[in-house]
Every structure is written in C-alpha cells, then in structure tokens.
Design goal:
By secondary structure, the chain is of the alpha+beta class. It has helices at 8-22, 61-75; strands spanning 29-37, 49-52, 80-82, 85-87, 89-93, 100-107. It has a 4-stranded antiparallel sheet with strand order 2-1-6-5, covered by helices on one side.
Length: 109
C-alpha cells in the first residue's frame, strides 16, 4: 500500500473514537440547524443542517468561531447555562448583525 494513498483523517478519527471507547468516554453528536438566514454571501440557507462529531462543517468561519465553545462542551457531555437551568442545546446569531441564526442540540446515535 502506498503511504500517500492512506486517508489519514479517517484513520485518526477511528483511532480517537477507539481510544475514547476504551477509556469509557462517550463522544456525543451535535446537530446544527440554520433557523434564519439573510447571509450577505448567500452561503447559508434556512433549514440547512449539519451533524457534528469531530470535524468542522462547511460553515462561515465567523459563525463557527461564535458557536465552537458551545459545540465542544456538548460533544464532551457538558451542559450550558440557560437562565436558571443547565441544558444540552444552544441558540446563537452570526456576529454580522445576526444575519444568520443557528440552533445546536445534542442528538443520540
């Protein structure tokens, strides 16, 4: 087998999943749904959705930078502040005047 033909991302992803399973860590999944879109570049559309496990989805980097801390928390079985509660979802807006709104929630396999 040619070393250059190996898909290293796939191998690394599978190795990490295996290590998490061996250590008893359950990495979750987060579903992102675009709930409103008036994006200047037309990159996002209302209703678009993505399942996040460990790789960044095709989102605008400005929006991703806003939501990544919440996604990371949820992927690692954490909870987020929501008023007086702790929850496993979030809603966020694009830093460009809220032109894109997104909802993220933990989903089960």
């Amino acid at each position: 087998m040619d070393f250059n033909s190996i898909d290293h991302r796939k191998i690394n992803k599978n190795l990490m999943r295996g290590l998490f399973i061996l250590c008893g860590v359950n990495m979750g999944k987060v579903k992102l749904t675009i709930t409103y879109a008036k994006c200047r570049c037309g990159y996002h559309n209302t209703g678009d959705s993505f399942i996040i496990e460990d790789i960044c989805p095709p989102l605008c980097h400005e929006l991703w930078n806003i939501i990544y801390p919440s996604i990371y928390t949820l992927l690692n079985d954490g909870t987020l502040d929501y008023g007086e509660e702790r929850v496993k979802f979030f809603d966020a807006k694009c830093p460009d005047a809220g032109r894109v709104c997104i909802h993220g929630e933990v989903i089960s396999d």
